[in-house]
Amino acid sequence: MAHNFINQIEAGQTIDDIYMVSDPILRSTTRGDLYIAMFLSDRTGQANGRMWQASEAVYNSLPKPGFVHINGKSELYQNNLQIIINRVTPIDASRIELSDFMARTEKNVDEMFKEVKAIVAKITNPSLKALVDEFLADTQLMENFCKAPAAVKMHHNYLGGLLEHTHNMLKVATAILPLYGDVNADMVLAGIFLHDMGKTEELSYEMSLAYTDSGQLIGHISKTFLMINQKADALTAKGNKIDRAIVDVLGHIALSHHGQYEFGSPKLPATAEAFMVNYLDDLDAKMSQVIKAIDNGPKDSNWTPWQNAIQTRLYRKKFDD
Amino acid sequence: MAHNFINQIEAGQTIDDIYMVSDPILRSTTRGDLYIAMFLSDRTGQANGRMWQASEAVYNSLPKPGFVHINGKSELYQNNLQIIINRVTPIDASRIELSDFMARTEKNVDEMFKEVKAIVAKITNPSLKALVDEFLADTQLMENFCKAPAAVKMHHNYLGGLLEHTHNMLKVATAILPLYGDVNADMVLAGIFLHDMGKTEELSYEMSLAYTDSGQLIGHISKTFLMINQKADALTAKGNKIDRAIVDVLGHIALSHHGQYEFGSPKLPATAEAFMVNYLDDLDAKMSQVIKAIDNGPKDSNWTPWQNAIQTRLYRKKFDD
Amino acid sequence: MAHNFINQIEAGQTIDDIYMVSDPILRSTTRGDLYIAMFLSDRTGQANGRMWQASEAVYNSLPKPGFVHINGKSELYQNNLQIIINRVTPIDASRIELSDFMARTEKNVDEMFKEVKAIVAKITNPSLKALVDEFLADTQLMENFCKAPAAVKMHHNYLGGLLEHTHNMLKVATAILPLYGDVNADMVLAGIFLHDMGKTEELSYEMSLAYTDSGQLIGHISKTFLMINQKADALTAKGNKIDRAIVDVLGHIALSHHGQYEFGSPKLPATAEAFMVNYLDDLDAKMSQVIKAIDNGPKDSNWTPWQNAIQTRLYRKKFDD
Amino acid sequence: MAHNFINQIEAGQTIDDIYMVSDPILRSTTRGDLYIAMFLSDRTGQANGRMWQASEAVYNSLPKPGFVHINGKSELYQNNLQIIINRVTPIDASRIELSDFMARTEKNVDEMFKEVKAIVAKITNPSLKALVDEFLADTQLMENFCKAPAAVKMHHNYLGGLLEHTHNMLKVATAILPLYGDVNADMVLAGIFLHDMGKTEELSYEMSLAYTDSGQLIGHISKTFLMINQKADALTAKGNKIDRAIVDVLGHIALSHHGQYEFGSPKLPATAEAFMVNYLDDLDAKMSQVIKAIDNGPKDSNWTPWQNAIQTRLYRKKFDD
Amino acid sequence: MAHNFINQIEAGQTIDDIYMVSDPILRSTTRGDLYIAMFLSDRTGQANGRMWQASEAVYNSLPKPGFVHINGKSELYQNNLQIIINRVTPIDASRIELSDFMARTEKNVDEMFKEVKAIVAKITNPSLKALVDEFLADTQLMENFCKAPAAVKMHHNYLGGLLEHTHNMLKVATAILPLYGDVNADMVLAGIFLHDMGKTEELSYEMSLAYTDSGQLIGHISKTFLMINQKADALTAKGNKIDRAIVDVLGHIALSHHGQYEFGSPKLPATAEAFMVNYLDDLDAKMSQVIKAIDNGPKDSNWTPWQNAIQTRLYRKKFDD
Amino acid sequence: MAHNFINQIEAGQTIDDIYMVSDPILRSTTRGDLYIAMFLSDRTGQANGRMWQASEAVYNSLPKPGFVHINGKSELYQNNLQIIINRVTPIDASRIELSDFMARTEKNVDEMFKEVKAIVAKITNPSLKALVDEFLADTQLMENFCKAPAAVKMHHNYLGGLLEHTHNMLKVATAILPLYGDVNADMVLAGIFLHDMGKTEELSYEMSLAYTDSGQLIGHISKTFLMINQKADALTAKGNKIDRAIVDVLGHIALSHHGQYEFGSPKLPATAEAFMVNYLDDLDAKMSQVIKAIDNGPKDSNWTPWQNAIQTRLYRKKFDD
User: Which end of chain F has fewer CB atoms within 10 angstroms, the N or the C?
Assistant: First the structure.
């Protein structure tokens, strides 16, 4: 039976399905009766859950967080969906379909990764080629690269988002590099491929999207810079001849790709290639954010709600081409 | 005889050629002898000129500014080129080849304009098509569009620079629009074609590049916005059916294309199309500036001088692809 | 019978009057009973309305938004006024007195407009005089000018606010122009008269104050600039001799009157007249805001709540003159 | 014989007059001959002086700085006025007319001060009246108030400038206070009268304009605040009944009158009166600066040079009223 | 019987103790029954209080704010502690132990003040010694100095916090002054002792922490500066010889000790001593804030909640030394 | 014979000594005679050198840059020291005393390094101890650590400056750590020891102070972070058990020690230890800069010239302790 997604539940439905439960709390009403408040969620959204006439035993049985089978009924409360729970049964995580509970890219991961490899295969500079191949040969890292989101909140914040963002930037770069002949294409392509690689370690994305401790302390910019140097060290240790000036210029792209100090880049772009990676990253992230904000949400207004990251509301009226 | 360009003169050469003279001053040495200091220039640069043993009559004969035939000799003074003048003869402006004296795009203007017209010819939305055609039909404006620089100082600051910049942006947009399917291509192409049109009035570019009075008071952003509305008004007056919402969205692209208030945009981008025009404009301007800064100047260091506009020096070492 | 204004209702009153209803929602209590939550408002404020024992039929009958006759009782809930509704009857908008529901200037509109016309009648420069007269002759525009608010939220945010703000600035200017003899009085007076004219199109003010789509995309600054040029074009087309340099200097005042890029001005003031208009606009807007904030709200403290726009709380203790 | 002012000397004149000399230096030419370089100035400007064939004895006789009688000849050197000195004779300061050497307000000091006193005489609040009278009774302070400049560089930077600025602000306030009825006029007038009083101690203005040590360490804002409290303490000690809340509100105007933290105000305006003093101060200072910049300098362009304090060039073309 | 502190009450306890009551409100339930909502607090925190079945008489008897004896029961409501009140009896403030209701330094006030006096006793410069002794001789001020908090919210926001902060800074300065030999130790010690003295007047700390009217209008920076000058004036009036340059340099430390204009300093540090006081103040305040944020709050995460003042979350995992 | 230092040469001296020559240029006078302009310097400063009656052969013989023996005479020209050269002879670098030509710490390097080692020897946490020992065991790095400057321009910009700055910070930390008991002393000491280690690679300091290419592209912050991870990797590879969370917390100190994004830190301090290192670094750097600026330069004013880095002039009057 197909999962009944949160964002499609309307008030008054009978609920008989599995959801992720988080932050359950045991409370008493003003009359002294016990009840449990909790959040129920899947990859499409979150709703309040209320189990009236609850007991401490039921409360203790709940995973915090984890998966539960819910029997109950939906209603609107203060304009938000609320699920009144009659029965709640813990479910083993191994029995659920994780893709129902975490958002995931709508594109084909295998095809995107294949295209990414095809594009970086065109790199001919020996040092860059060796470095890129060393990353591609790290199967655990590549698995994470295909699975990680690009962010917790901002853009491409779903499983496979990092790959989707990198893949799209590589395609944009391939399309416009012929128009900027003085730019070193190898450096741009290697720079894009690696620019956010540190996000595989900055973020955790097992049951939900979050920052790792190490990610919060160090950040993906410095982690990417470190990975590039560690791979270069490994290649050198294996006897490969790696031009350290090229490693510095590539590391500089990683460090400077946010383009401004206040966005966490410790260096500003100082090569044509660093500028191009910075602009294409920003372009792809912003287009993704803007299109998503315009497509989502209630359509009863020509304007989206205020978008804090871009300091404006967005106009969503469409015109024919 | 080919013009002896300023940037190719070395110390010790005999000079016998035409240059633009500006800011001549009659001075006396500490011994009381009169001499004339002036600037001599062509499209490749500027040098100090000194005429020792000068007279007030010679000084009075000089155009201020204008063109002169110079006989003399080059030397280095305080590390800069200086031309010691033996004889100076005013030359009528009609006799000189203006292209020797004002920098000009190295690309073919006719071909670029033809390509621009071919790209915008793909626009199908009736209101946008009518507006773009109305601009194309304004022959005086199109002549200026092909001749104007894109800036006095920053990027594409030479005759034909506005066309070159617009042309390149249109080609970049054509290459990447297929990768951003939710974006209205017609609006992006029309927006790029028109985004800097006001520079034809903001700048003067007859004998040198400068701001007009009107340009300094109003700015090209508001001038472009005004032109779009004036053309729309003219079309409406002629009985064409122009969707005013489309005119507003196109005007919004013109107003917001600098992307930030402090860069003179009175509105921030609020549509996907406005974001794309803003990013492509910035990308093309910055790549042009960065590549030019790296290619120009003394090559005795791996680093350019400090670039104030981008708050860094640029690294100019090249690596093989 | 006089309307019973929201801001004068105390807990425990019987309610039998007309209010504007907005955002009604049908909900069920934890027992399954249906009730309707809604907002009730007039020009003095807004209260929560609750109709217990409601039905879907009643809910469907409500305008969303619109006017209703309410029978019920007031009470305090969580320290806010709430109206418990026994009966609700939709009312046709044509039967209500709109001035009870939208705030309006307390000054006499006709007298203010008469004074405005008297002040600008002193302008003698032919181009400025022709332009100002062209605006005054546009009766539809002048009607809107007398009706529009000066803002949705900040200062003079009520019907007639634009006129009141412009009128007061003109009187301040008249008082101080003799003290600044080198300033062109005609330009200052014309600049003030027109500086916010674009707000007639930026804002909508039929049933409530809001931004129009066009207003949000373009802004009143650019709209004012466009209006000035359109009127100048119309005059020229009719054969009047209009000095375009004067149109530019007047347009510059419109563009620069916010004084800073981050407040949406694409140009900074570059004439003495533009500086004066900028300062008098800011002075009048801030004095209005500050005095209103000090006069309104609970008087149990010497300090107002935090005022975000001016980054401080305001001290409201009064001293005798 | 009238003084031959620096700004009226043209190249080629015989010089036989008194000037202020500063920063004289004894140098040797490349041939080993001694000469003296110095600056010669009066209240209209400054020129380079050169005495060729000088001796150490002459150099030692020069005041550093002070006044000298110069015999010589003017010339242009590198486009600047230079005076070639044949003979230089020290002059006792008591014999010169100081007003020739320091810029001074063009308005009548006695009349302005009389008007200032007439305006503040209208104050009726007892505490404010007592405070203002206490300042007026301090004859040494009032003498300095009439003599001090308002700044070293920015606006009203000449003897009597502080009085001129305060006087003009009081007149502007008198003109517009009737238009802002909710504002405490006594507080505004007292606030304006005192707002810059600390400049009498922040600046020195005997032979040239400069900051005192104490002025640089403390600033006129805190000095004014201190003066107000010292006068209030003195009145209290003499048995006058001074409302300390009024002293705080007046002190607050002094502290906040620069309007922003980055302009050195430790508090932002928090009363309607503080806002008004802040705006009128800024208006009067900026109008004075802008008008002066437009009126001064070469008239061969419609635009002044770049004005750093207001981040623009100024347009100086005049139109008939 | 020991007071039952708010932060140690768990759900389900019987409550029979004295608390501070604030903001009581009489409300009616949806059935029309009256109840009273109020806040109950002591120095460890605050809880909601609810008295169901209340009457207007009970409501009228409550102090607003003040102390009450509460009989009732604790429960959790929406995850927050709530106290259900059966009986409430007003208590005279003289009968309660104030230290139970306002947070207070955990260090020994007498010992800290003794150490402060011992450290400043080492000052030998006559003017500074006289000034410091004049402050120490002001017993009312010293009593307030020992009692005042250092802030309402940020750091050391409890009774005795000002003394604790000053004491710790003096100890840090004593430890590092030998390492910075060119710094005037007397000036640093006197500067630290006095730097926040104005907080005794800026804040009120009788029944709760708040700003005084005078404090909000003037700020502790200017108040400290004023105090220093008033003490110096008093010493001079008594015939002591006080070097006014030293008073300025000490006043400069008070004015500049926040280090930046946007933090309310009207002058930036301009002496080595002012820099040291600024850094040690900032260091001690930040260390106190950071350590408190790390130690407080739920320990179920390695990270604290977002700390707005320092724009980050804090990592709280501990490692062995 | 002792070297005749540049900063002690007065006009009129006979010069017969070795100096570093840089940027020599061959020029011709207005009469056609050749002369050579060059800079002559040692560790105390720089002077202009002029060799009149020079030849191309002499010019070609000069090192660019390098060391030369000069015979000539000093004079003042435009108020700056200038050396008129009669004879110039190239000198082999091996024959000169480098310490005469590059500024060097005035403290004893060996003693400082011994004290540094003694302080970090107190670290007991096994992971931190192992890491610090791994750095200490890298003799080439420690040699550079003892030799490198702390900056090219700002503070401690001389050989041994990095050690001096680190040493002083460690002593300050040792003095105040007992006053901040909740801070992990091991982490602070290890953090200080390593915080600027990357400067050994960011800067070059053989014949003059400059940035390396790699230093400019990457910066010492990221270089230090990389070094810490490389040493940790090396220890792990050798079988040591290193707690990676500790490596992250130490790396975080390196990344955040500039305290603000705009100073090049990609992360803001998020631990008490990171805050302490940030403050002590800033304190030591600023105290060093401020004291140096006050001590240097002409003493004829109570104020130093404007100090751009701290946005003020500094007051240099001294008072007795």
Answer: N
Q: Do B214 and C267 touch (CB under 8 A)?
A: no
Q: Return the structure tokens found at A72.
A: 């109950």
Q: Kindly state the average pLDDT of the residues C287-302.
A: 85
Question: What was the ipTM of the complex prediction?
Answer: 0.86
Distances (CA, A) of F5 to F10, F12, F15, F19, F102: 10, 15, 11, 9, 12
pLDDT in tens, C130-175: 999 999 999 999 999 999 999 988 788 899 999 999 999 999 999 9
Reduced 3-state DSSP string for chain C: CCCCCHHHCCCCCEEEEEEEEEEEEEEECCCCCEEEEEEEEECCEEEEEEECCCCHHHHHHCCCCEEEEEEEEEEEECCEEEEEEEEEEEECHHHCCHHHCCCECCCCHHHHHHHHHHHHCCCCCHHHHHHHHHHHCCHHHHHHHHHCCCCCCCCCCCECHHHHHHHHHHHHHHHHHHHCCCCCHHHHHHHHHHCCCCHHHHEECCCCCEECHHHHHHCHHHHHHHHHHHHHHHHHHCCCCCCHHHHHHHHHHHHHCCCCHHHCCCCCCCCHHHHHHHHHHHHHHHHHHHHHHHHCCCCCCCECCCEHHHCECCECCCCCC
In 3D, which of C281, C282, C304, C308 has the Cα closest to residue C293?
C304
pLDDT score recorded for residue D275: 98
Structure tokens at A42: 């899947």
SS3 (DSSP) at D112: helix
Strands (DSSP E) contained in chain E are 14-28, 34-42, 45-51, 66-77, 80-91, 203-204, 210-211
Kindly provide the b/e burial profile for residues D161-192, where b requires at least 16 CB atoms within 10 angstroms of the residue's own CB: bbbbbbbbbbbbbbbbbeebeebbbbbbbbbb
> Quick one: pLDDT band at residue D95, thresholds 50, 70, 90?
confident
Give chains near D: 3+ CB pairs under 8 A: B, C, E, F
Global pTM exceeds 0.90: no
In chain D, DSSP assigns E strands to 14-28, 34-42, 45-51, 66-77, 80-91, 203-204, 210-211
Query: Among residues of chain A, what percentage have pLDDT more than 90?
Result: 67
Residue E257 vs residue D75, higher pLDDT? E257
Collect contacts of C136-144 with beta carbons under 8 A, ≥24 apart: C138/C231, C141/C197, C141/C200, C142/C113, C144/C200
Do A24 and A36 contact (CB within 8 A), yes or no? Answer: yes
d(CA D148, CA B200): 50
**What per-residue string of b and e applies to C188-223 under the rule 16 or more CB within 10 Å gives b?**
bbbbbbbbbbbbbbbbbbeeebebebbbbbbbbbbb
Nearest Cβ partner for F262 among A244, A248, A262: A262
Task: Look at the alpha carbons of A297, A303, A308, A310 in this order and tell me if their dihedral is positive or negative.
Answer: positive
Q: Which of residues F72 and B44 earns the better pLDDT score?
A: F72
Residue E190 pLDDT: 98
Chain B residue closest in CA terms to F214: B315
Give the H or E element holding residue F38: strand F34-42
Contact present, C169 and C132 (Cβ < 8 Å): no
Q: Please name the residue of chain E whose CA is at the shortest distance from the CA of residue A211.
A: E303
Spatial CA neighbour of E138 closest among E227, E204, E215: E227
How many Cβ atoms from other residues are within 10 Å of residue C80's Cβ? 10
Report the DSSP pairing between strands B66-77 and B80-91: antiparallel
